[in-house]
Amino acid sequence: AHQSKLDFFCKLGYGKQDICKVLENLGQEALEDDVLKELIRMGSKPQALESQAQPSPLKLVARGSCSTSPGLKWLGEDDSDSSDHLRPIVIDGSNVAMSHGNKEVFSCRGIQLAVDWFRERGHTYIKVFVPLWRKEPPRQDSPIADQHILEELEKQSILVYTPSRKVKGKRVVCYDDRYIVKVAYEKDGVIVSNDHYRDLQNENPEWKWFIEQRLLMYSFVSNRFMPPDDPLGRHGPTLSNFLSKKPVLPEPKWQPCPYGKKCTYGNKCKFYHPERPHQAQLSVADELRAKTGVPLSLGKQEEKRNRPP
């Protein structure tokens, strides 16, 4: 079973080291879906994608140097496309703009507010995708507010237009959601949208896990862009950990034992006992002996005597 799973994920392009690590964590009987989910959560990517993202062989570059390989010059990005610890951000421009315009107006101000929020946090790789036809003069059936913002963001290499053209007077639009998910997946980043991309989830199982794990929803509260503090629910990571490549785990807070001094679990009790400084060393029997003043060595001899051969 171990070998067949190893072969299966090797064929998908994942490294043996990552696969073995996940199988050790989840156990040999883990379902393939769970293993895939864990590989994506770890940030492991198929080697075909990695070879696009990383120049090979790796070269040591002096700090502050901007040397880049030709393969990385895509969407105006460079080697330092995101700071070391923050994830790349891919924004669904149409979703954010319509949300800010109360689903009636395509409000470009909403996109600017979202970009500014991530910039202030220190993210350096931010891409916004908007269909090309939004460049056209606004029509009555599709009003646009603050259209000049799109031009400004395009000059800053933040905004990317997805292709669209007219054929015999009809507009042919490429599917911008596919661009958004594809770029976020390949960059191992975060998608900012209130859309769930269900059709794309059904299309590709790896995208399904990625969208479930890396979709950041948001709200606008009086011109303030506000993502939730718990993007994956109350038991998931904090917003700060969600947006970081290297999450910081909180120190475990010991919960006091509800039974207090009446607890009879001894060192097997998983709760905190302030009255037991040497909690880990003493077993229940030793604790009772300590209370009654019987020496530990005598107690252990007695135990051996009473033990059946």
Condensed summary:
The chain is α/β, with parallel strands linked by helices. Among the domains are: 1-42; 89-243, Rossmann fold (3-Layer(aba) Sandwich).
- CATH top-level class of one domain: Alpha Beta
CATH architecture heading of one domain: 3-Layer(aba) Sandwich
Briefly note the CATH topology name of one domain: Rossmann fold
End-to-end gap? 42 Å
> Structural class per helix/strand content?
alpha/beta
Shape summary: elongated
Radius of gyration: 28 Å
Sheet with the most strands: spatial strand order: 5-3-1-8-9
**What is the count of β-strands?**
11
Architecture blueprint of SSEs:
Blueprint: H1 2-11, H2 16-26, H3 32-41, H4 47-53, E1 89-92, H5 93-100, E2 106-107, H6 108-121, E3 126-131, E4 144-145, H7 148-155, E5 159-162, E6 164-167, E7 170-173, H8 176-187, E8 190-192, H9 198-203, H10 205-214, E9 215-216, E10 219-220, E11 225-226, H11 239-242, H12 284-292, H13 296-306
Helix pairs in contact: 1-2, 2-3, 3-10, 5-6, 6-7
